[in-house]
Amino acid sequence: MPEEMPDRATFDAVYRRSLEDPDAFWAEEARKLDWSRPSDQVLDWSPPFAKWFVGGELNACHLCVDRHLATPRKNKVAIYWEGETGETRVLSYATLHREVSRAASVLLNLGVGKGDVVALYMPMIPELPVLMLACARIGAIHTVVFSAFSASALADRVRETEARVVVTADAGVRRGKQVPLKPKADEAVAHAPSVEHVIVVRRGTADVAMQDGRDAWFADLLESADDSVPAVPVEATHPLFILYTSGTTGKPKGIVHATGGYMVYAHSTFQWAFDLDENSVYWCTADIGWVTGHTALVYGPLSHGATVVMYEGAPDYPDLGRWWEIIEKYGVTAFYTSPTAIRMFMQHGDEWPAKRDLTSLQILGTVGEPINPEAWHWYNRHIGGERCPIVDTWWQTETGSFMISGAPGIAPMPQKPGVAGHPLPGVDAAVVDENGKPVPDGEKGVLVIRKPWPGMLQTIHKDPDRYQMAYWSRFPGLFSADDYAVRDEDGYIRVLGRADEVLKVAGHRIGSLEIENGAVAHEAVAEAAAVGVPDAVKGEAIVVFAVLMDGYEPSDELGEEISGSISLSVGVFARPKSVHLVRALPKTRSGKIMRRVLRAVAGDEPIGDVSTLENEASVEEVKRAYEALKQEF
Ligand code: WTA
């Protein structure tokens, strides 16, 4: 790692300019996109509501597809799709254009128009990005629901967005097996009266029940599709997508992103972090069901006309060599994954990556959770061959794209393992105390953003008050990211983890209360609390404490059933590591669950300094609660 800071000055100059005159800075960035009408105003800011590029008109699908057709990229590979069981599909920009047009035609033929919501509940197959872009093409708003979410989670999202169309697949493929999806979609749609049509993409082979008049195979609908549907320009403030994410209540938040601001921000930040050139082959391993897949697999790279690798399945299928084989096969130059994946591979030793030629790699990235230095060094050595910069990108569903990250696309800067880095241009980040005052460098505080940025969420779908409360009320005038962080003397920020009751399990964002609701849905459970405990691979693992109703006896089977109830309610990825049946949950006098007591007991740690532990409970009470629970544990 370089000791000196050769390019710090270059970076600082850009950063300073971006904060001194954000309007000019973002206007210049916006000019890198195609606009059918330029904006009249860069930012209309009536806190906490921002409208970016007011008066401007553009189309996100045009930016990601059509505009490349007039260039030599026309026949360049847009997407290399690698199926888990060995099949591949290759889409050039020209073929992507045709597929997207035809998919848009299918939607139009079903009566979908501008502003209508289409829910995409799909596995990692090319039709997923194709349908996202098809929605964008006609001004429809997509809401992608991660395919491992349960039917009830899908139903909530479809109901709330009043989606008229749900697109799903007969099944997904995971570890060589077909995982049925359509039955889950059916169950959800039964509870979502807004849905008029269900489109089913064929991925598996099993028989599927189709409801007459409502359901149709995508392939059948494509037969009468038109391949010259134009991309219609929409206002910059028109929503591009709604993506649900967990907060501290049991009800996920529908994060709304607007076309103009999101596209400008995704386009610029993607280039800064990944420093793409015309020969880049870029692979983001995230599922498109999360924001990482939206920005870093679809809108960011395709807006640059990059070649994207999309992999369908599990990282270790058929063996732990699969990912490294894919990198070698496609000559991946930029690779973006999660610390959980890195730790998983690290645990299994160096021999798997060592079997493959990874010298095509030029840049690596991580996202979703803090990366521990040990995993960083392993990634650097065994994947990057100590040649590749690693960008540790900190961001959120709410921020649209990267906020704090290395920026080799602007200037290479020294790296600090485990530290995300400097805020990117336009990002006025600070670490503050409870009163919103910056803490001294080196001290822990809460991460906030002090100025609006183009990628910021517009609002929470149908709930502007919640938007204001959730993000702007803790520190008036500041966007609260609800992460703990420390800033160092170089202005780099180390992100420590969530400051709220949201868990990060294998990088997936899950609200404690959603898990608890899933547990309480079991008839035997009177009350439950879920906490995260440190996990060597997943970062955090879920531990649930449950109090049983009178008349039920604790047993291992009951614990299993409660786990099952959580999977059914949230999704299999939220299945707890363990469920403990206890007599009572430790609570303060006003009834607030003492989560730190639960975390300490579950993680088998001492309760430590309790003086600042729970505002509402005395030190003695906390200690007593801890000891009592520990004995039961
Ligand atoms: C965490 C994922 C440390 C953080 C893009 C944030 C990170 C939450 C990093 C958002 C990182 C994301 N280092 N922590 N590089 N990136 N996080 O909405 O806690 O799924 O608040 O978006 O992930 O999760 P989300």
Structural account:
The chain is of the alpha/beta class and 633 residues long. The protein binds 5'-O-[(S)-ethoxy(hydroxy)phosphoryl]adenosine (WTA). 5'-O-[(S)-ethoxy(hydroxy)phosphoryl]adenosine binds at residues 245, 290-292, 367-370, 392-397, 420, 481, 483, 495, 497-498, 504, 509. 5'-O-[(S)-ethoxy(hydroxy)phosphoryl]adenosine (WTA) binds at residues 245, 290-292, 367-370, 392-397, 420, 481, 483, 495, 497-498, 504, 509.
Radius of gyration: 24 Å
Alpha-carbon distance between the two ends: 46 Å
Bound heterogens, unique: 5'-O-[(S)-ethoxy(hydroxy)phosphoryl]adenosine
Mean pLDDT comes to 95
- Biggest pleated sheet: 7 strands, mixed
Shape: globular
**Helix content range:** 25-40%
CATH topology label of the largest domain: Rossmann fold
Summarize the model shown.
The chain is of the alpha/beta class and 633 residues long.
How are the SSEs placed, and which strands pair?
Blueprint: H1 8-20, H2 22-30, E1 41-46, E2 49-54, E3 57-58, H3 60-69, E4 77-82, E5 88-92, H4 93-109, E6 117-121, H5 127-138, E7 141-144, H6 151-161, E8 165-169, E9 171-174, E10 177-180, H7 182-189, E11 197-201, E12 215-217, H8 218-223, E13 234-235, E14 239-245, E15 253-258, H9 259-274, E16 281-284, H10 291-303, E17 307-311, H11 322-330, E18 334-337, H12 339-347, H13 351-354, E19 363-367, H14 373-383, E20 390-393, E21 429-432, E22 444-449, E23 459-460, H15 464-472, E24 479-487, E25 493-498, E26 502-505, E27 508-511, H16 512-520, E28 525-535, E29 539-548, H17 556-569, E30 578-582, H18 595-602, H19 619-632
Parallel strand pairs: 4-17, 6-7, 6-8, 8-11, 11-12, 16-17, 16-18, 18-19, 19-20, 29-30
Antiparallel strand pairs: 1-2, 3-13, 4-5, 9-10, 14-15, 15-23, 21-22, 22-24, 24-25, 26-27, 28-29
Bound molecules: 5'-O-[(S)-ethoxy(hydroxy)phosphoryl]adenosine.
5'-O-[(S)-ethoxy(hydroxy)phosphoryl]adenosine binds next to α10, β20, β24 and β25.
